[in-house]
Description:
Layout: H1 10-15, E1 20-23, E2 30-34, E3 40-47, E4 54-61, H2 67-82, H3 95-105, H4 108-118, H5 136-144, H6 154-167, H7 170-189, H8 216-232, H9 234-246, H10 250-254, E5 261-262, E6 267-270, E7 279-282, H11 285-293, H12 326-335, H13 344-358, H14 360-367, H15 372-378, H16 384-397
Antiparallel strand pairs: 1-2, 2-3, 3-4, 5-6, 6-7
Amino acid sequence: MRRGDRNLTTKTVAALRKPGWYCDRDIPGFVVRVLPSGTKAFAARYVVKGTGIRRFTSLGLFGVVTVDQARKKAREILSAVALGDDPLGKRCPTWGEWSVTYFDRLTAKSKNVFHRALLGFTEEKNKRSGEPTDSTFREIRLRWAPRLLSSFRPEDIERERAAIRAAKSATVANRWLAVVSGVFGAAVRAELLGRNPVKNVRSDREAPPRSRTLSTEEMGRLLAALEGEKERDPWAAVGVLLAVLTGARRGEILRLRWEDVRLDEGFARLPDSKSGKPRYLALPARAVEELRELPRVGSYVVAPARDPLPGKDGKPAPERPRADLKAAWERLTTTAALEGISFHDLRRTYGRELNRAAGLRVAQEALGHSTPEQTAAAYTPEGFDVIREATEKRATLLPFPKRAAG
């Protein structure tokens, strides 16, 4: 531990102005940090003997505690270290212990959106399909579980982040980094840890959000293709049409039950949307007409493509929503000659056109977003045809010199 060139006293600490760390001359490891704001904080730093593990703990702010009080506490901690002890490590939990505590405190929605998978709490097999699930984050959890939180260094986090980025993508690595930072940050707030090791790990720059929308011509081809799809799979055709007319997500459409559809009133209730709160879809007259004509097979609006196989006991399998619309979507995009179009682009197109017709606030409510910024960022880009029209209009207003005839 570095030894300073002065003793930390009330007078010398009060005189410090330049931001940085200042070490005590008599007690190496007893330090004061001057922040850019001028605040001064005492701390004790040491290295656990034989491990290279660094520990850090706050001892209070100058003015709240005295120099003598901070010095006394630092001396107790550092004296124990000199005798081979690790006083901070005794109360510092392992990653396995603390991540469980952190996970248990989350809301059900937070657990299921990111944290369950990224913290490695998923099962080895999917309960529905029986297929193996991704083991990447379970393996990280297994490696990290016995380690004390205080033993993690920025390079440990960076190593895992780089491996995830190489195996998956920068986006996944950034999501994982944010979740892990939350776990360490909670330990810092609980005063179980002196600092968050993720703080000095930089995330990757991600690609800009997708902004593809359908032009008027492309939408016309898709709607024409839907007429043919009705003969083959009318439920899938109505599912795609609902995405076009209401901007609903694919999962919301597939989980929509007849009991939540009010055709006479012209709306459908989504009891469990992505936001975690119920929301309502406005059903235009064309959607109501198509839903009235759709045969009702089971409780879901988009009936499963095939009857589920009975269980091992011979009893009928429980009713489940259709897993996806991939086959129908591939047929539709092929028939309509649509390139580079995803199902979610229907929702983005709906958001763009609703924003243009009724404004951002209405588009936000219709899409079920919590803030207008979320809607503006990715769901209301103007189509290229609108930009081209506006550019042409502006060009006609420019004061070009008249051309000579002939």
